[in-house]
Structure formats: structure tokens, C-alpha cells
Amino acid sequence: MTALSQQTINTVKATIPFLTENSTALTEHFYKRLFEHNPEVKVYFNASHQAAGSQQGALAASVCAFARNIETPENLAAAVSLIANKHVSLGVQPEHYPVVGKHLLASIDELLNPAPKEILEAWGEAYGFLADVLINHEEGIYKSQEWNGFREFTIDSKVKESSNVTSFYLKPTDGGEVPSFSAGQYITIRVPSADGSTTMRNYSLSSYGCDKAFRISVKREDALHADQPSGYASNYLHEKLEAGDILEVAAPCGEFTLDDETIDKLGENNTPLLLISGGIGVTPMLSMLHAVAGKNIPVSFIHGAINSETHALKQEVLEIVSKHDNVKAHFKYSAPLECDKPDSIGLFDVELIKQFLTGDSEVYFCGPKIMMTHMLSFMCELRHDREKVHYEFFGPAEDLQVCPMGH
Fold it and tell me: Of 131, 192, 250, 351, which has fewest CB within 10 angstroms of its CB?
């Protein structure tokens, strides 16, 4: 892989003020141009996130982050891993990169009307460098997978977990066993779209350690505003599919995990583990809880829900707690029903986290954006070691950092 020239580095850095001021306009223009000229790539994008503008915002943040770290690309290792896993889960291939690059450069040129030649050449070289990094990383993930592309799975059973969450147990249609996976990983499902194409979505595996079936627990995503669409895939799963129906499934992906090596290290040192989830963020955290139950690891599991009607998989957590002395749980409801008896009421706050957090704790959390932002703020306030804080945000990766966490 050829290193970037100093001239390219200097030129890209010089565009940072322009990108900071115009990043959203640039990415909106880019997506519009990309979909107009290459509509076949729409299948790789989430229509709801496009309509809400979050995907455009995520790309804008990524472009700015790359420009700011162009001299120290190692700072972007975590972001590269996240993006590469997402790309592999959707089946992105090396031949897609030149298409994206062409429209990104054209968008810069058209927005600057026109862009100076040296800027286009610098960004062309920089994009090629980043593409090579991602392609190489993705190649390694593809080689490690049990299968590439999509494999048919049959819905063995469909279980309602709450007012808006349903679990789907998926078995290979060919009768084979499902592969092992790391707690916290997700699979991709592909379903037919209304326009005759297909739609792909990632869903965390909420089970762990079963070689007979995958389990995904899916929240039905209804439109929050009249001008935004409901979640197509989640509603399709809830309303259209029943036991016996077939889904196309891609192999497990994702780097937000508690793998065997990490679990062994936690057990060797008797390191406390704090698992925190909000809403449907419970799915990867429950998989992690299954993986560490019964280990030499003190585990605290905190979950926040609106009330008992929306609290999915509660009984399963309680059963784990009852069977394993190393696990304790705390449930917090923001708007409990009259009959509810949660452990505490309200939103997550720093005082609650202090009850379960020690200086040695490894912390994993997942949930809605506002919860994630608050949790990062709490970790900063409590000056918890940033290397011990791990999280995943459901949806396009966004900049949730609220403080440097450089303690």
C-alpha cells in the first residue's frame, strides 16, 4: 500500500475548514448523485436513516475525521474495523469503491464549482488510500467467515417478547448447524422490497452458545414523524413472516464483542463486568450475559425500559440471575405502569452507575443515542479509564463523544 504524499496530506488538511462548514451539504449532494447515477447501490443503504438524515450526518463526520487524522490514520483503527464489518455484513465488494469514489470527487468538484485541480487530485489519492485499507481489512473478515453471501434459514419459531419486540429463531434450511459466534455480533437478513429489489438489515444475535439456531429479537420500528417512513424490514418481519418461512441470512459480523479470549482474561483476574442496555440495546448485552454467566467474573446487568410492557426478555435475565451467583441485575423504568415494580424509576443517572462501577470494571453498553451520549458523559464524569469503556450505537455510526476521555 503506497503511503500518501506530503503534498496530498497538506492539501487535504487545508480543506478541513471547508469540510467542517459544508460537510452535510457535501454528503447530501453525494448521496443524491450516487443514487441517481447508480441506483443499484441503494440496496446497501437504510431508507429510514436516509430520510432522517442520520446516514448523511454519519458520512459527514467520517469524512471530517479522516481529514483530521490523515497524518495519523492509526487513530481511525476502531472506525475502520466498524465500517469494514458493516461492509462485509452487507456484501460490499472491492468493485464498489471506485463507484463511490467517482461520485465523492464529483460532489466536491460541483460543490466548489469547480474545485481546484490540486484538491481533486489530493482527495482522489486520499480516497484511494482509505479504500485500500478497507478492502484489505474486509478481505480478512470474508476469509474468516463460515460462508460468504447469503444462506437460506427457516424461521423455526416466532416468540413475542414485549409489546414491540419479537424473537425469531432461525435454523439453516439445509439442516446444517449454525456456526459459533462471539457474544455481541450481528447477522444480516435480506428481504424483498416493495419495488421488487431487496432490503438488508443488521440484527444483533440475542442468543449465545447454541449450534441449532440463531435468535434475533427485533423491535418493530414505527415512524416517529409523519414525514418519515416506518422501519420497512422490522415491520416486514413482524407482520409478514411466520414459522416455516425462509429468510436469507449472512454470516455473523461485528467487532463490539465479548470473545472467548477476553472472557478468559476477565476470569483470570476476577475483573468486574458492567453490562448496560437501554430498550432494544438489550440484544447484544443479553448475548454477552449468557457468555459470562457462571464464570469467575462479577457481573452487573443494568437495563432501562419505559415500563413492563416494553421490557423485552426480562424473564430470561431473571432466570440467569437465579442460576448463577456471579450475576446481579437492576431494572430501571422511565414511565412505569401502576402495577410495575422496577428496581428504580427515571432515566439513567450517574448516581446509579456509581453503585455498580468500580475502578477495575470493564463496561459495555448499547442503546438509543440519547442514552449512549449520557453514558459516555457519566464515564467521563467518573473518570473511568477509556480503555475499559466499550459501546455500540444502533444505526449509522455517529460521533457520540462528549468529552475527550483522556484521563
Answer: 351
- The count of structural domains within the chain is 3
Q: Where are the beta strands (DSSP E) in 50-182?
A: 151-160, 165-172
Q: Which one, of 218, 79, 199, 111, lies nearest residue 150 by Cα? A: 199
Pairing outcome for strands 362-367 and 389-393: parallel
Of 210, 155, 160, 152, the closest CA to residue 180 belongs to 210
Same domain, residue pair 230 and 344: no
398 inside domain: no
Lookup result for grid cell 485500500: 132
Among residues 97, 169, 208, 236, the one annotated as catalytic is: 97
Q: Which of 31, 125, 127, 138 is catalytic?
A: 138
Q: What predicted TM-score, i.e. pTM, was given to this entire model?
A: 0.89
DSSP state of 300: E
The owner of cell 444462506 is 151
**Residue 297 domain boundaries:** 260-393
Task: Give catalytic status of residue 138 as yes or no.
Answer: yes
Q: Does residue 27 have a pLDDT over 90?
A: no
pLDDT digits (tens, 9 = 90+) for 97-115: 999 999 999 999 999 889 8
- Rg of the chain over Cα atoms, rounded to whole angstroms, equals 22
Query: How is residue 176 written as a grid cell?
Result: 446444517
Q: Quick check: is 97 catalytic? A: yes
